[in-house]
Amino acid sequence: MTYETIAVTKLNPILGAEIDGVDLSKPLSERQVAEIRQAWMEHVVVVFRDQTLTVEQHLDFGRLFGELHLHPASLQPDAHPEILVVHADENSTRVAGEDWHTDVSCEEEPPMGSLLYMSEVPPDGGGDTLFSSMYAAYETLSDPIKKMLAGMTAIHDGKAVYDRPGYREDKKFPRAEHPVVRTHPETGRQALFVNRVFTTEIVGLNRDESDAILQMLYRHVETPELMMRLRWKPGSLVCWDNRCAQHRALWDYFPNRRHGERVTVKGDKPYYRSDTASAKAEDSKTSAPRAPKLYSLRPRG
Ligand code: SIN
Q: Is any ligand 1 atom within 6 A of the Cβ of residue 105?
């Protein structure tokens, strides 16, 4: 797609782009929204700099991409339950998202995307967020491993994460079974869909087998070449697609402060459709086919 209303600059070969030429505090045209969505789907993580947004404007921007999600275990400000506050300072004992994950993958219908607006960054640097492309993670697996994973499912359990004092006194934690490889509902591409924080086991394997395969996949997800590292500035808004990216927040700035607010957009039930079935479905559509983009890592000796 040629962009007419925004400027899109890639930040990394594998994922990430900066979008310029748009003020998100102003009403956006249909064309602008379509182009932003297109750039987001194409680049997985998109970054807007120098934005000044009220909470309402942030929420309104999120709503352009779907219904907003309520976090199952967060202490949201009463007035805006759809806002997830991401805050750390000298009194913090933990921060959100400190290990590799996709947001709330323990739900039956995990969020499609998250939009984090950062208003305060640590004065001496730090507090970057790492993102890893799950398209690239899947595509750089060897064919025998891809064949083995096709059709496998895994359990994602919220208990491991949310069973803490002050969180969900009712002890009702979301738990779901999802395909290990999911087909992206908008691009048709395959993405690896297991993460360290929520995935507890691969269904149908014994414990040792499941642990070994999950550990191998987690290490693969953390391959530096699959990643981008985002340096925040005050006024940055970053959108990531949870269906094809994992992220990890770095807490290397204690005792300094970092403050942001996240709006999360609801998603749908993950599914796996084989490449052959996906290609047939694409062919039957009238719109232009979205060619899969295949990554390969530099050959290693
Ligand atoms: C999160 O997982 O949403 C937090 C990300 C961050 O603070 O960088």
A: no
Distance between Cα 247 and ligand 1 center (Å): 7
The answer to whether position 294 is within a domain reads no
Q: Is the CB of 245 under 6 A from ligand 1?
A: no
Quick one: which H or E segment has residue 230? strand 227-230
- pLDDT tens profile 218-263: 999 999 999 999 999 999 999 999 999 999 999 999 999 999 999 9
Protein residue with its CA nearest to atom 3 in ligand 1: 97
Q: Would the CB of 156 count as within 6 Å of ligand 1?
A: no
Query: What is the number of domains present in the chain?
Result: 1
Q: Is there a cis peptide before residue 77, judged by omega within 30 degrees of 0?
A: no
pTM of the entire structure? 0.92
Look at residue 293 and tell me if it is in a domain. no
Instruction: State whether the beta carbon of 249 lies less than 6 angstroms from ligand 1.
Output: yes
275 torsion bin: left (phi>0), alpha (psi -120 to 50), beta (else): alpha
* 292 belongs to a structural domain: no
pLDDT tens per residue across span 56-80 = 999 999 999 999 999 886 655 567 8
* Whole-angstrom distance, CA of residue 102 vs CA of residue 190: 15
> Ligand 1: distance of its center to the CA of 76 in Å?
15
Q: Is 299 inside any structural domain?
A: no
| Phi, then psi, of 92 in degrees rounded to 5 | -75, 145
